[in-house]
């Protein structure tokens, strides 16, 4: 094999000419003050600071908080396999309304939203487009009606014979079989509404922020209850004698036509939801302070109030099991549902709620053993 050791003809002369061109260009360059690029040094300094903070006690606390917000409860189940108590669960997401059986099987009512159980869970009232529909949990539609304006928040009366719903800023009533639709009130605050158990009496919030109590079967049978601020939610106790108004920073408990007989001022905490126990003796509520949320439990007529669960991020909603032994908490920031036995003896966490039910899931109700 031939090895080339000698340069090719003219190779050395060409290299010398090339070097001369490079040398002259270097000498003729515009001289600039030497400026050191400190970006790599700055990045290293920041990284070192982060690591130092992480392994100091305050840093460990911060990482623990981040872990709580992202991961939630450890050892959570990857999917909802069953309910810990009898009944069926209603929830909704961007995909539609889900009916969940006790054994964990579920059915999607595609495209529906603003759902509510009828008494005994025989039917679901829900909105699809510009229609309010009454359908069975298997999706069979029994009746529907269309109205102008945004339809939202249907609510069944205690016996299923009346349904209240909002159409724009108007509050309307329809019979449970889809007949007799009529206007109850104009210019109300859409959202808060609750039927008094045992009567066709509805509590809602007028435009001024006051609570109206109206007998929907008798004209001009209304009374006004003044709340400290406009309620975000209304809920009746099972006996129909008292109801709770959830406001931005307080709860108020009223006698059936007033006056105020109890409640809690939570100061700077922001309240997001409440649920009365099936026996009507207690209510659970969610409050948020800074970056932490807590689930609180208190008596309808006062007594001790205490947190039964707290964590970083947002708790979205809470519902009771029909037997009153479990609370189901929607921990939105952790993408988890927590089944909490009351008094706190057991906690069952379920993860991947968005993956299993769709974007923006929200608890509606746990109905009917």
Q: Report the count of strand segments.
A: 28
Beta-strand residue percentage: 35-45%
Major sheet details: 4 strands, antiparallel
- Assembly state (oligomeric): single chain
C-alpha geometry:
globular
Given helix and strand content, the structural type is mainly beta
Strand order of the largest sheet: 3-2-1-28
- List unreliable stretches of 5+ residues: 1-8, 21-70
Termini distance? 93 Å
Q: Helicity range of the residues?
A: 10-25%
Radius of gyration (Å): 31 Å
Mean pLDDT: 85
Protein architecture, described:
The chain is mainly β. 14% of the residues lie in helices and 44% in strands. It is built from 4 helices and 28 strands. It has helices at 11-27, 39-54, 57-71, 353-357, and strands at residues 88-93, 96-100, 106-110, 113-117, 124-128, 131-135, 141-146, 151-156, 162-167, 170-175, 182-185, 188-195, 201-206, 211-215, 222-225, 233-236, 242-246, 250-255, 260-265, 270-276, 282-289, 292-299, 306-312, 315-320, 326-331, 336-341, 347-351, 362-367. The strands form 7 sheets. A 4-stranded antiparallel β-sheet has the order 3-2-1-28, with no helix packed on it. A 4-stranded antiparallel β-sheet has the order 4-5-6-7, with no helix packed on it. Helix 2 (39-54) packs across helix 3 (57-71). The chain is globular and about 55 Å long. The model is unreliable at 1-8 and 21-70 (pLDDT under 50).
């Amino acid at each position: 094999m031939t090895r080339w050791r000698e340069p090719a003809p003219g190779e050395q002369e060409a290299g010398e000419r090339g070097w001369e061109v490079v040398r002259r260009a270097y000498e003729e360059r515009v001289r600039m003050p030497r400026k050191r690029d400190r970006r790599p040094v700055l990045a290293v300094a920041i990284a070192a600071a982060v690591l130092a903070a992480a392994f100091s006690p305050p840093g460990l606390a911060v990482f623990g908080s981040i872990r709580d917000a992202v991961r939630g409860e450890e050892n959570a189940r990857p999917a909802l396999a069953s309910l810990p108590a009898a009944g069926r669960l209603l929830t909704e997401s961007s995909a539609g309304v889900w009916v969940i059986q006790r054994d964990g099987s579920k059915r999607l009512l595609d495209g529906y939203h603003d759902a509510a159980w009828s008494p005994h869970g025989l039917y679901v009232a829900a909105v699809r487009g510009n229609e309010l529909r009454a359908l069975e949990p298997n999706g069979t539609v029994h009746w529907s009606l269309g109205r102008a304006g945004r339809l939202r928040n249907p609510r069944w009366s205690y016996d299923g014979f009346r349904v209240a719903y909002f159409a724009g800023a108007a509050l309307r009533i329809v019979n449970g079989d889809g007949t007799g639709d009529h206007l109850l009130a104009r210019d109300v605050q859409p959202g808060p509404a609750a039927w008094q158990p045992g009567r066709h009496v509805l509590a809602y919030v007028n435009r001024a922020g006051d609570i109206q109590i109206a007998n929907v079967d008798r004209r001009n049978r209304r009374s006004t209850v003044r709340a400290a601020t406009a309620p975000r939610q209304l809920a009746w106790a099972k006996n129909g004698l008292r109801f709770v108004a959830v406001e931005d920073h307080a709860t108020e408990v009223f006698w059936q036509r007033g006056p105020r007989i109890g409640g809690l001022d939570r100061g700077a905490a922001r309240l997001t939801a409440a649920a009365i126990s099936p026996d009507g003796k207690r209510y659970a509520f969610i409050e948020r302070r800074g970056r932490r949320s807590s689930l609180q439990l208190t008596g309808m007529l006062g007594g001790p109030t205490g947190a039964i669960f707290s964590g970083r991020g947002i708790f979205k909603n809470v519902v009771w099991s029909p037997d009153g032994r479990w609370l189901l908490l929607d921990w939105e920031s952790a993408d988890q549902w927590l089944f909490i036995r009351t008094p706190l003896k057991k906690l069952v966490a379920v993860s991947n709620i968005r993956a299993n039910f769709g974007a923006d899931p929200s608890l509606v109700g746990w109905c009917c053993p």
